[in-house]
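Design review, sub-item: ligand-bound model
Attendees: FS, YL, KQ
YL presented the inputs for the glutamic acid complex:
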Amino acid sequence: MGSTDIPFRRGVRAKAVYQEPAPRLDKDNPFQSMMERFDVAAEILNLDPGLYEYLRSTSRIHITSVPVMMDDGSLRVFQGYRVIHNEVLGPSKGGIRFAPDVDIDEVKALAAWMTWKCAVVGVPFGGAKGGINCNPHEMSPGELERMTRRYTANLIDVFGPEKDIPAPDMNTNEQIMAWLLDTYSMHVRRTETAVVTGKPFLIGGSRGRREATGRGVMTTTLAAMQRLGLRPEDCTVAVQGFGNVGSVAAQLFSNKGCKIVAISDVSGGYYNAEGIDIAAASAFSEEHEHSLEGFPGAEKITNEELLALDVDVLAPCAKENQITSENANDVKAKIVVEGANGPTTPDADTILNEKGILVIPDILANAGGVTVSYFEWVQDRQGYFWTEERVNRRLDRMMKRAFDKVYDAAEEHGVAMRIGAYVLAIKKVADALKLRGIYA
Ligand code: GLU
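KQ shared the predicted structure:
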């Protein structure tokens, strides 16, 4: 962190603060963790060295300074990123996250994961991701709006309905997408709804988009239960993370008859052997500034205790690097379903596999979000909007189909589902690239 005192605006002495993210330890580096899995799949596919080089490379990296006038009159400059990993299957697609630890390695990994995710589930997009290094919880709505608008304006030539289409991710929501849509539309002098997905329904959003990622988590888990001969009503579930993915997944699991024995958020874990009333937990969190702190329907446990619970299903729906070589041995669940991107490290993967735990990998398990983003983009371009039933029906069908393909690919190659998913995805993008050829 460094700061310079500069005279600014009507005598206010403002501080320009530059945030330098703490360097990541190698074992936590999400790009490396993505590449380790990529390498295993590339070997199975016997991927040509040139194709290997091409598919592991990032197509474009945009880093932009985002200056924002804060409410107190000071100026702050945030670091913004947009990384396009690959566009072979179509325009690039991926969310934007606001978080204090956003850095280039994380955004690069997340962009590549989007490429594989879109390929696994069969939507015609390439992969991208964006982010701003900031602490959105300390910012007012006005500051967030100015930051979002300036980030969008800086990247105006990158975004576009046929080029690169952002969406929500960690700490971003429908309102942020609405500001992005408006800023883009003002610049191009027309309302361009298809430039962003995950926006409010009133301005071109899709029914069911908000619940889509959690719904995909539930659908893929039900498919896994079926393969393992488990009945949802006999299963206990622990969900890590109570944001847009975790809270919806927990509710949908509960609707299917599963018993949710534990949930968590940044304030800690909450356990009730008799089952937690998810609707009550959601209402409580809503009323308490999105925190479960003090939730009366459960006893407090730690995050580590939650991951080690003797449950049938463990759903890490928070963030990267949660199940590691340090705690993977303690995991007792039969199914781990990755609602978050990258919650399991490669070392932990090996341990979970040896324990015979079925891991539904992130690039499959959480692909429901981008699937309904695709539906939203289609609806915007047609100007014709579907009912929630139609959205959910098509989502369930696509997720179930993707699950079966990945499960079968894993069996065929004698590998874990994660590697099966990478094999399918890499092969699809490689085949598409061969058809398109290399423009010289
Ligand atoms: N951020 C979500 C993800 O990681 C959704 C991306 C999108 O809809 O484009 O999959």
